[in-house]
From TrEMBL:
It comes from the Bacteria. The lineage of its organism: Bacteria, Bacillati, Bacillota, Bacilli, Bacillales. Residues 7-192 form the NAD(P)-binding domain. Pfam families: NAD_binding_10. This is NAD(P)H-binding.
Amino acid sequence: MRILVVGANGQIGKHLVSFIEDSDSLEAKAMIRNAEQASFFEDLGAETAVVDLEQDIETIAAAADGIDAIVFTAGSGPNTGKDKTIMVDLDGAVKTIEAAKAAGVKRFIMVSSFDTRRKAIQEAPSSFAPYVAAKHYADEWLRGTDLDYTIIHPGLLTNDEGTGLIEAGSEVEMGEIPREDVANVIVASLENDTTIGKEFQVVGGTKRIKEAIDSM
């Protein structure tokens, strides 16, 4: 299975491409914003595509040519303004969903925010609310398609070494989770078709990742 990783140069994305390239059944194509980022992925043996999410749907669709699944793990980052949140986390996500449809890619995994329900927007701090709102509408757009989607809602992300142990469910108590573990959750979801049409929150826990995903 060939996987287009959108947002590959992010911290989750780098772990994900590495894990995919270590897999016997998966192959990664890293979508990156500029060519200077390519060497990291080429050293892993991954193909790259230089595409900015602010480009058009057709350009993103071209990067998805011959791809079996798309993982959207891009984000504008904590230090950008509301404009970039709209252009990347909302419009970039929607354009990638539309590009998947245009390219005939059915499988789509969205890495979202921990809680993107309307109540979460209203309760979020003013600095964080635009991000939650962007994710809310991107998730809604994906749910409204006929794509074979999975939406992953990770808890508070850390750069700690992954433990391989998580708690996952439709609603779990907020907690931390290493980015490395989120990447492994994505791989497990790609390898398990029972996650299609589902979404779940995930934090650090006591179940092995494969076991937790298999029981979804």
